[in-house]
Design goal:
Elements lengths: L26 E6 L2 E8 L9 E6 L19 H15 L3 E4 L17 H18 L3 E7 L1 H11 L5 E7 L5 H11 L34 E5 L8 H13 L4 E5 L14 H10 L2
Parallel strand pairs: 3-4, 3-5, 5-6, 6-7, 7-8
Antiparallel strand pairs: 1-2, 2-4
Amino acid sequence: MPGPGEDSPLLWNTPADQVRCVDSASALWVEFASGQACIRYFSASPLQGAPVVIVMFHGDRTIEMHRAPQAIAGNTLRAKDQQAAALSRRAGVPVVIVARPGTYGSSGNHGQRRQASEFQALDAALDQLRQRHTIGRFVLLGHSGGATVVAALMTLGRKDVKCAVMTSGAFALLERAQMIRRSKGLPARDGRDTNGLLHPYDPLQHIDGIARVPGRPLILIGNRKDQVSPFVLQERFYQALRDAGLEARLIEAPAFGPAFHQLRDDIGLKTAAQCAQP
């Protein structure tokens, strides 16, 4: 039976509070180099002892973060578990949705995304998730800003990842911000990313941190017409991976217009599911 609070709105952009981070099936209290966090995760599949689990990170939730929690669609524990269950059925392996800081009940400020602390918190959460459920390996899957999360996690040296799938990812973050501002006729903001922040953690600048694991593919999927994450920058990240001697693949895929950012045919999940097979 559902426990209390499963239909209550998940809180957004809240400070870390260990006292409230107590759900042993959905909350991880983590400590890392630059702070502490409560990271929420959602899965309706049995995780204990799973040899491979797909971990999915959502893209940016810029619009949602400015709404009241009760006005955000699918913003309850029950809804997120149901979403994870549907993804698991389609993938044929357990899928866990890990909420980025500031979103879907995870502490932090989503307005500070793509700073090093976001990725440090999620990296620590994966360590705890694996330990709590005795998981063998992860397949990481992320779209847009979630793809940047996946790339950043790889640069932190993870060796427990079987495969990384990044769809429509944001890379070369300062140049991307300039390109987007220019396309909208906005003035340049040198040194600041699309959040208006200085010093974003750009995976493109940290490729030397990626562990060399033979036979582990790093897969980028995008559309050449992407208006949100310029494909030329996805290509640059792919080439940098190849130049570093890493096994990288770049796949062009159909996408929905007019922004050509959301890819068709569930290709990200399908690719991750293929990676997860023995």
